[in-house]
Amino acid sequence: MGEDTRLSAVVALAQGMAAAHSSRETWRAAANGARHALGGNFAALSVWERELGRLRVLVNVGDRAPDEEEFPDDEAYPVHQFPEIAEFLHERWAGGGEPNAWVETAEGPTAGVRPGYVHQRVAALRRRGRGCCVVAPIVLNGRAWGELYVARATGVPVFGRDCADFATVLAAVVAAGIAQTERLEEARRLAFTDALTGLANRRAVDVRLDEAIERHRRDGVVVSLVVCDLNGLKRVNDTRGHAVGDRLLERFGSVLSLCGAMLPGTLAARLGGDEFCLLAVGPSVDEVVEAADELCRRAGELELGEGVACGVASTADAIGAVRSGRRLFRLADAAQYRAKAERATRPVVAGREGADDPVVRLADEPSLEASPERRRFRGRP
After folding, report:
1. How far is 194 from 375, CA to CA, in rounded Å?
2. What's the confidence (pLDDT) of residue 221?
3. Mean pLDDT for the chain?
4. Rounded to an integer, what distance in angstroms lies between the CA atom of residue 339 and that of residue 208?
């Protein structure tokens, strides 16, 4: 392979990873780019999970064996089976520089690789009909992150030393791409996360709610929203300080997360100030009301604060057609406002009625007479 061809392959690999929009796309682009660059028929990307003492396969691409999935859920190998990732790397590059890739064949160790380190890989090559592989360590921030693995089928010329050197270059490009993806994902996470509680924030709710309402309109999926106002926060801030108030918010956030876990796939969020919500997509409205009732009970048992005012609105109840997330939010918000005004200790549910019903009936289209302070934390334009 000429220098121009290899340079083009490196550029293609970098461009493929830069165009990825998720971790999975990044992994696939890395493995495919390396496979094409090295003329292999199979490639895999694995991460070293130090706390579990294993190499976990993230993606397999190319000619996969029957037991190899593209994105495996549980394909992992104890590091002691491949100790070079944990030992060989550090011995060879702890003093500086980058770790070099190496070649292994189905016939056994190649020159420059210590015997006893490769028997598991050799067995795997033979079992899967592969004649050779090149293994390139991936290093991020001066630490072994994982490995890039590219193989060729039996009968095809084996990788040479020049291929191993090129694989080392490719692994460095992959490392840079993975680092960029991780930085972008961290930025996205921060953009949709409340810094104090670690819950989702209002922006995340807006995005998820719009998506959920679209699913409801298209497929009839039940969408329910629980809006909560934590009582007593101002008193705690005024009498015991904002640090104690923050602790109350954090504790209630944990209670909200716990109750949200009763409903699979539910998003728990802090909207701002003392307002929180649960967004459930799929569970029945009765399950949602039960979780909200449990939330009210647990909030009332917190050492600080004065319980929670809780409003529920669901597309499964008699609230009229819901064509936008804004409408569902307004209904849940108004139900919560009424719960607060009546000092209700159980959730108010929009659209329900009955003398013996523990919830209070809410008009189909509420008028929101919230104070300016309350509008500051809610209310879409």
Report:
1. 19
2. 93
3. 83
4. 25
